[in-house]
Design a protein that fits this description.
15 helices, mainly alpha, rod-shaped, 765 residues
Length: 765
């Protein structure tokens, strides 16, 4: 057997296990048929088919043999009819000759003795045949007839009776002794039992009708002879008694003769053989009987004078008696031929049926043997092949010689064996591929261990097996993870730099806010001083009418104060612009920080998605992806922490931006107020210069200056309020800057933590 046809050890073990399980008998007990082999079952089925067939054929053969036995019994009975007819015929002749002997005709003694010997021989033959056939009743009746004839012969020889008494005695023997012999023979041999109507009618005719009518029809000559002898010669007068006796016997015999002729005609119609002979015998009997009956009618019954003598009747009698018994003998012979033909046909049918039965049984046995062999041989081959297959031999091919279910089973077995061979080769190939896959998995596990330890420069080897797609996907994922982590590191560095720049900016903003606050407080104090000076100037203006010099001095002092105020307002304006610029810069920095935070959030989301894909791939890789799943889980947790930190930073930056916007709006309002105060101070200086140049007109314009001073007081008050608001806004900005600094410090700490977390990963260059 080739190596390819051998099973894989694991598959052999499975088949051996299944074979052992199949060889183990079931727990449930099987029936009688379950314990028999297929050949035994077929033999049992053959017996079940052959036994009824044999019984049916045996029944037909037995029935046909019974028919043959019945026909042979009827033939045996028919053979008894010949000596019985001889006995009747000779007894009929003895009836006539004994009457002649008693009438004194001595020449009748010799025929009478011959007739007696013929009767004795016929009865002896009848008795011996009856004994041979086992017809005990017939043998007993024959003995009685012989005794009756012997007693009558003794009386005739002794001349102890008249001719009429002799005729009457022989008639009684014919009717009461010989006639019952026909019934005994027919009953003993079953001659009257026949399924064929034609044969049954023939047998009934020769055993019943003819024995009843032949003696009566033949009795006319025996009865007429004594009457004719008594009447004497021709021309003698016929007395009424003789005429009446003759007429009665003539009518009786004529009716019997008519019945005989009718029976002969029916036999000629029904029989298939000897029809011409029967017709000829009937014609002869008709001719001879007409001679007798017409002679008696014309010579004895009708005329008044006798015209037919006893001698003339004696000449007609032998021919008539011979034709009568010849017709009877012929009918018996034809019936025997019919029986013989039926018996021969029955024997032939029995032989043919027996041969057919034997041939049918032989054919049935041969057919059953061939069928059994056609079933058991392929099954034996299949069983042997199955046993070899269970031992692991796959190089099998059962020859398919039939198209029945066994052939289909053999074809299915060959297909199954071919599939097992293919499965064995496929299992071997899969085993080799599994070993290669196991090696590749081991190599890839080493790579994943390095990756799990943070070395993202490692890459798995992409193979052609099912692991290749997984390795390729994981390589791509690691590559993307490295790029993502590199981007995270870059973003972390950017966040760190941005947070540092933000701390520097917030420090500058805080310093500017402090300066702004101080300047605003100083301006507020100066504004109060200006307010006091202007109020004083107003009082002086009230007294300007008294002294112009004091007004001039006051105007000069006022001009100097206004110059100082202008210088302070100019400083406040510059500080306000610096604060506004710092706030604007802080707003831009916060927007940059927001972009960085958005980048970090995006990177964290991508990292989280990448870790999810890595978890899915690790789950698909089974046990080989367990360690990589741990790495993916750490990456996901890191992404979640980055995302949370970015969210907190975004919230803080949003708060800082909101506060910066509020500070910017407040600074814009303060700048407007400073600008307005600056313009008022310029107007005040201009007025003071006008006061200096128009000191001569101070008296006239004192009231006007007083009004202007009042307006200046209100303006200075408004300016003081604006400066106070600027100071408050500066303080609020300083608080917001402090909060922004705290947020920037927290952002820097988160960026440092992120950098520390990323330091464990070794990224590709």
């Amino acid at each position: 057997m080739s190596q390819d046809a051998r099973l894989d050890p694991q598959l052999t073990e499975v088949l051996a296990t299944s074979q052992g399980a199949a060889a183990t008998p079931p727990a449930a007990t099987t029936g009688l048929l379950g314990r028999l082999s297929v050949g035994q079952k077929l033999a049992l089925a053959g017996l079940l088919v052959a036994v009824p067939f044999a019984v049916s054929l045996g029944s037909l053969v037995t029935q046909q043999n019974r028919e043959v036995s019945r026909l042979e019994g009827q033939l045996s009975g028919h053979r008894l009819l010949a000596p019985l007819q001889t006995t009747m015929y000779n007894t009929q002749l003895m009836r006539l000759t004994s009457a002649q002997l008693l009438q004194g005709e001595q020449q009748a003694s010799q025929p009478l003795e011959t007739q007696r010997q013929a009767v004795t021989q016929a009865l002896a033959s009848l008795q011996s045949q009856a004994k041979a056939q086992g017809f005990t009743g017939v043998s007993e009746e024959v003995r009685k007839v012989q005794q009756a004839l012997d007693a009558l012969s003794f009386s005739v020889d002794a001349m102890a009776m008249t001719p009429e008494e002799a005729q009457s005695a022989y008639g009684a023997i014919l009717k009461n002794s010989i006639r019952p012999l026909f019934d005994a023979v027919a009953s003993a041999s079953g001659l009257r039992v026949n399924t064929d109507n034609n044969v049954g009618e023939m047998l009934s005719t020769i055993t019943t009708s003819l024995p009843d009518n032949v003696p009566v029809a033949g009795a006319i000559t025996a009865s007429a002879a004594p009457i004719l002898a008594q009447l004497g010669k021709a021309g003698a007068s016929i007395d009424a008694t003789s005429r009446q006796a003759m007429r009665q016997q003539w009518e009786l015999s004529k009716d019997a003769l008519t019945t005989i002729l009718s029976q002969l005609e029916r036999l000629a119609t029904n029989t298939t053989v000897g029809r011409a002979e029967l017709k000829q015998a009937a014609d002869t009997l008709t001719r001879t009987s007409n001679a007798v009956f017409d002679g008696l009618q014309d010579g004895v019954i009708t005329p008044t004078r006798l015209s037919l003598t006893a001698a003339q009747l004696g000449e007609l009698t032998p021919a008539y008696d011979a034709s009568l018994f010849d017709a009877y003998t012929l009918a018996t012979k034809l019936a025997g031929q019919e029986l013989q033909a039926r018996a021969s046909a029955a024997r032939q049918r029995s032989t043919l049926l027996t041969l057919a039965a034997l041939l049918g049984l032989a054919l049935l046995g041969t057919l059953l043997y061939l069928i059994s062999r056609a079933i058991t041989q392929p099954l034996s081959r299949l069983t042997e092949a199955s046993q070899r297959l269970s031992r692991g031999e796959l190089d099998l091919n059962v020859p398919v010689t039939t198209r029945d279910e066994v052939g289909q089973l053999a074809t299915s077995f060959n297909v199954a064996a071919a599939q097992l061979r293919e499965n064995a080769a496929r299992v071997e190939q899969e085993r080799i591929e599994a070993q290669q896959l196991q090696q590749h998995v081991g190599q890839f596990l080493d790579v994943t261990m390095d990756i799990a330890e943070g070395d993202l420069t490692k890459r798995g080897k992409v193979t052609n097996d099912v692991l290749g797609n997984v390795v390729d996907s994981i390589n791509v994922m690691v590559e993307e993870l490295g790029e993502t982590l590199r981007g995270v590191q870059t973003a972390s560095s950017s966040v760190t730099g941005g947070s540092r720049a933000m701390l520097s900016s917030t420090a500058q903003i805080e310093q500017g806010a402090s300066v702004t606050t101080e300047e605003a407080l100083r301006v507020a104090r100066q504004a109060q001083e200006v307010n006091v000076s202007i109020q004083e100037m107003a009082r002086l203006a009230q007294r300007s009418a008294d002294t112009a010099r004091q007004a001039l001095i006051a105007s000069q002092e006022g001009q100097q104060a206004v110059s100082s105020t202008l210088e302070g307002m100019q400083n406040i304006r510059g500080s306000s612009e610096a604060v506004s610029s710092g706030v604007q810069t802080l707003s831009e920095r916060s927007e940059q920080i927001q972009e960085i935070v958005d980048s970090i959030s995006h990177i964290a989301s991508q990292t989280n998605l990448l870790s999810l894909h890595a978890s899915i791939e690790a789950a698909g890789a089974g046990e080989a992806g367990t360690r990589f799943a741990v790495v993916a889980e750490e990456v996901r947790q890191l992404a979640d922490e980055s995302n949370a930190a970015a969210g907190r930073i975004a919230a803080l930056i949003s708060q800082v931006q909101a506060e910066i916007r509020e500070l910017s709006a407040a600074m814009s309002v303060g700048a407007q107020n400073v600008e307005q105060g600056f313009q008022v101070a310029q107007q005040a200086g201009e007025k003071l210069r006008q006061i200096g140049s128009l000191s001569q007109e101070s008296a006239q314009l004192a009231q006007t200056m007083s009004q202007s001073a009042g307006e200046q007081v209100r303006g200075v008050e408004n300016m003081g309020q604006g400066v106070q608001q600027i100071a408050q806004i500066a303080e609020a900005s300083q608080e917001s800057v402090k909060e922004g600094r705290s947020a920037a410090e927290e952002l820097q700490k988160l960026a440092q933590q992120l950098n520390q977390s990323l330091t464990r990963f070794r990224l590709p260059s």
